[in-house]
Amino acid sequence: MDLSHKQWMYGGAVLLAATSGTIALGGVPNVWTPMPLPIVIVAFIAMIVFPFVTPALYLLVLKLSSSSIHFGKIILALVVFFGVLNIIYFQSAWEYGIKYQGPEHTKIVASENLVGFTVALAISVVALAKKSRPLAYAANFLLFMLLSWCAFPYLGELP
User: E-strand spans in the chain?
Assistant: First the structure.
């Protein structure tokens, strides 16, 4: 069963909002809700808006790129771009994570990110190789799920 474009757009956006919203339930970073730093910053600025930032960006990417014949390449480029940025972020924030969140938390969250971005990359590559639009949608959704859930986690001192 292939999902329609609108099902990917709006269903994905709802799931991403729910994922971002779980941050409020967790209260403090843990391995299940590591609190992505961009979401934390938005939450400090406007608490009501933060669950909708990632879904809005997800919808924007789909709106601007899904009709392109290069959709698979665009998603692959986004996965690689954010994956590399995430690696750079972990390299710079690693010591803070060890100091303030603990070695176990930091290693588990890094592992979650490594697995997630590896799976997103694999799906993107297969989508491009097979010219599969549903797989490209899945890779895009997984990328934004990672951005909502665990990419660029807050590893510093808790307020």
Answer: none
